[in-house]
Amino acid sequence: MTLAAPAPLFLDDHDPAASRQRCAACLAQLDERDPSPECPRCGGLLEAVHRRPRGADGAPLPPEALRASFAQHCCARPLGHPSGVWRFGALVMPAAGDAITSHPEGNTPLLARGALARYTGCDGLLIKHEGHNPTGSFKDRGMTAAVTQAVRVGATAVACASTGNTSASLAAYAAQAGLPGLVFVPAGKIALGKLAQTLAYGARTLLVRGDFDACLRLVQDASRQLGIYLANSINPWRVEGQKTIVLELLQQLGWDPPEFIVLPAGNLGNTAAFGKALREAHALGLITRMPRLVSVQAAGAAPFARGFADGFATRYRVQAETVATAIRIGDPASWDRAVRAIRDTDGIVTACTDAEILEAKRAIDAAGVGCEPASAASVAGVRQLVAAGTIRPGDRVVAVLTGHVLKDPGILIEMHQDGAAGANAPVEIDPTVAAVAAVLSAAA
Ligand SMILES: *Cc1c(COP(=O)(O)O)cnc(C)c1O
Ligand SMILES: [Zn+2]
Q1: Residue 104 main-chain phi, psi, to 5 deg
Q2: In this predicted model, what pLDDT tens digit does every residue of 38-59 receive, in sequence order?
Q3: Which one in 179, 263, 387, 425 has a CA-CA gap of 20 to 30 Å to 103?
Q4: CB 246 within 8 A of CB 278
C-alpha cells in the first residue's frame, strides 16, 4: 500500500480560499464546491483542507482564543449555536455561514457509570453516547455537513449506501433540505429500527440483493452515471462533521485528552475522522498530547484488525458476517485514511467476537445506558485490552457508543425471549395483586 507524503494540514496562509478538497493519494486540489465523489485524476479519496481559524485581525488564532471561540458558540452564549457540529464550524466547513441544514445534532453526553467501570476493569472509563443524536446515531454529525454541502453545490438529489444508520440520517436531513433521498441497503441485513426510520422520513429505499460492499459499488456507479450527490462516508464533508465527536469530547474534558479513545470500526469513516480531528487539534495547540485511538471490529468482519496485525502491509478484504450489522463490512472504503489515523496516534486495532460484543451490550443495557450491538464493540474492546494489560485500570478512556438501543429491536427480542441465557423475558399475568406478589416472590 502506498501513502502520499504527509501534506500540510491547513491551507497556505496566502491562499484566499476558506477550504479546498485535496486528493489524499495524488494531492490534486479541487475547489471546495466540486461535487466529484473522488479524485477525477486518480480515483483517490478526497479530503477537506481548511485555512487556519483566524481572528478579526486576520492572524491565526492561538489555542486559548480558539477554545474560547468554541465555548462562545456553545448553547446559551451570545454567539450560541444549538449544534455540537456547527459550534466547531471553523474546522468543519468555514465557508458554510448560516446556510446550513442542521437538526441540530451533537451535544451528546459523556457518562460515567460504575457498573461499566467494573465490567471493563477500567476505573476511568467514560462513555460518549452518540446514540443521543436526532436520528439515534453519530451519522447525523456527518450528514448535517454532507447535506449542507449538497445544497451548496446545487445537488438535485442525495444518495448513500448504508448498513442502516446512514440511510436513516440521510433520509431525515434530505427531508429537512427538501431534497429527494435515495438509499441502498443490503436486503434482509438492516436492523428494523433503521429501516423503519428511513421509510418514515421518506427516502426512496432500495433493498439490494447483495451485501453492503455491493451496495457501495452500486451507489458509486449510479451517482457517477446519474449525477446524484454521494453522501457516503467517503464524502469528505461527512468526515469533517464526524470530527466533532472528538472535538466535543475534548472540550467536555477541558481539552485535557484521555489516554485512549475507543470506537467500533466498520467502513472506517469514523476512525479516519477521529484521526483527522486529533491531528488538527494537536497542530492547532488545542491539545498537547495525542490520545491513542483504538478501533474495534467484529471478529467476523475484521479485515482492518488483520491488516494492523501485519503492520498494514496488505489491504485485506473478507466476506463479513456478524450480529453487529452496522459494522458488517468486508472491504472498508476509508482504509488508507484509517491506517493514517492509527499510525498518527500510536493506535491499536482489535477484534471482538459476537459473543463478547453481545455480552458487553448486555452490561451496557443493564446499566440503564443502552446501545445497539455494533456500539458495544467499543466497551468489549476496552474490557479485552484491560485484560491484556494494554489499558491500565487507572487510564482515562473514552469509549464511544455509536447508536441507540432502539435501533435493533430484533436482537433485543431474541436476547430477552423466554429460555434465552440471561433473558429478562416479560411475564404475562392476570390483573390481580396476588399474581404480582407471586412474580415478586419467584424473583426473590
Ligand atoms: C456506521 C456505524 C459504525 C461504523 O462506523 P464506520 O465509520 O463505518 O467505521 C459503528 N456503529 C454504528 C452504530 C454505526 O452506525
Ligand atoms: Zn488523485
Answers
A1: -90, 175
A2: 999 999 999 999 999 999 898 9
A3: 263
A4: yes
Q: Rounded distance, CA 1 to CA 3, Å? A: 7
Is the bond leading into 332 cis (omega within 30 degrees of zero)? no
Per-residue CA distances from 164 to 137, 229, 248, 418 (Å) = 10, 18, 25, 28
Select from 305, 268, 279, 289 the least CA-distant residue to 380.
305
Kindly give the residue spans of alpha helices, DSSP state H, lying in 121-235. Answer: 139-152, 165-177, 192-201, 212-226
Show the domains of the chain with their CATH numbers: 110-135+239-415 (3.40.50.1100), 137-237 (3.40.50.1100)
Largest CA distance in the chain: 80
Minimum-distance ligand 1 atom for the alpha carbon of 265 = 9
Tell me how far apart the alpha carbons of residues 349 and 343 are, in angstroms, rounded to a whole number. Answer: 11
Q: Give 12 Cα–ligand 2 centroid separation in angstroms.
A: 19
**Most ligand 1 atoms within 8 A of CB, residue of 105, 138, 140, 216 to mutate:** 138
What pTM value is reported for the model?
A: 0.96
Secondary element (H or E) of residue 295? strand 292-298
Q: Which residues of the chain have pLDDT under 50?
A: 1-2, 4
Q: How far is the CA of 64 from the centre of ligand 1 (A)?
A: 33
* Measured CA distances, 295 to 247, 256, 330 (Å): 18, 21, 15
190 within ligand 1 shell (Cβ under 6 A): no
Atom of ligand 1 nearest to the CA of 269: 7
CA distances from 119 to 1, 131, 173, 298, 415 (A): 38, 21, 37, 19, 19
Q: How far apart are CA 86 and CA 92, in angstroms?
A: 7
Q: How far is the CA of 290 from the centre of ligand 2 (A)?
A: 29
Instruction: Give kind and range of the element (H or E) at residue 306.
Output: helix 303-309
d(CA 388, CA 121): 11
Q: Which three cell numbers stand for residue 267?
A: 467502513
The one-letter amino acid at 316: Y
Identify whether the C-beta of residue 278 lies closer than 8 Å to the C-beta of residue 307: no
Q: Which residues contact 22 (CB under 8 A, 6 or more apart)?
A: 7, 28, 29, 30, 46, 47, 48, 49
* Residues 228 and 367 sit within 8 Å (Cβ to Cβ): no
